[in-house]
Amino acid sequence: MDRKGKVLIAAPVHDVLTTGLAAAGYELVWSEQISQEEAFRLLPECVGVITSTRLQLNRELIDAAPMLEFIGRMGSGMEVIDVAYADQKGIRCIGSPEGNCNAVAEHAMGMLLSLTKRITKSFSEVRSGLWLRDENRGMELEGKTVGIIGFGHTGSAFAKLLSAFNMRILAYDKYHPVAATTNITPCNSLEPVFREADIISFHVPQQEDTHHLFNREFATAMQKPFILLNTSRGTVVDSELLPGLLQSGKMTALGLDVWEEEPLSKMSAKLRIVFNELITLPNVVITPHIAGYSVEALFKMSDILLKRII
């Protein structure tokens, strides 16, 4: 078999990908916990790299890899890759956003149900010996209006799950047209979301125009008390606003799977104060960026990448 060169595996992947690449003639170089510095040492000998969010495939790193033919991205969001520069160099940039969209949608649904039914809060109280029924009266989702910001793979997958609850969905996507259906209303601006939404869920990439998309102006424009969900990127939400919004009642609950500075060990002192305050509040659920990391999603993303590479 002709050898096709080395591929750096710089992310957790399913065996379907590594077995398939090896069978196709690639030599695998493993470094799932790779640092940016180590990548400069390993990539010059590689024709391909499989990454997630750990590496920044910027101009400097791309220039340091003269043999590079393809970059495979586990999951969605190509912000870790200078795609335009890679294109100029003839390097294929291959994503797998549909591989984990259902996992993210189910996670967002789980957080929403936990918050509206007070599941996490009441279980914590039961573990402490409390049996509080009136204090944990839940809210039904039926008839509520959800504003989905970003209607690509994950946003549309979340809408599909919400439709089973007979909810009205306002779908806003700045870059892609949204088709109207029985329960989905496309929005050309955020004004209908500000006016009518009971729940906001973000499903947008990390880029310049989404940095702090949820800011003070956004929160002020909301006409109803609302629940906020973010399973996209931490920088989409201005975290410093959150404790005040929750304590004032403007925001009734908060579900986050992402944080502005990850992992927590790299958090600034300023955001640590905000984070420590949030995790004491009963109407908050925070998970460690695991929404798109299900067992099934790992397989689906790996399988999609393999087929697109081969």
UniProtKB/TrEMBL annotation:
Pfam families per record:
2-Hacid_dh, 2-Hacid_dh_C
UniProt keyword Glycosyltransferase, yes or no: no
Residues covered by the D-isomer specific 2-hydroxyacid dehydrogenase catalytic domain:
8-309
Tell me the InterPro entries matching this sequence.
D-isomer_2-hydroxyacid_DH (IPR050223), D-isomer_2_OHA_DH_cat_dom (IPR006139), D-isomer_DH_CS (IPR029753), D-isomer_DH_NAD-bd (IPR006140), NAD(P)-bd_dom_sf (IPR036291)
Q: What PROSITE patterns would the database entry show? A: D_2_HYDROXYACID_DH_2
Signal peptide: which range, if any? Answer: none
Tagged with keyword Oxidoreductase = yes
Q: Which UniProt keywords apply?
A: Oxidoreductase
What's the protein called, per UniProt?
Answer: 2-hydroxyacid dehydrogenase
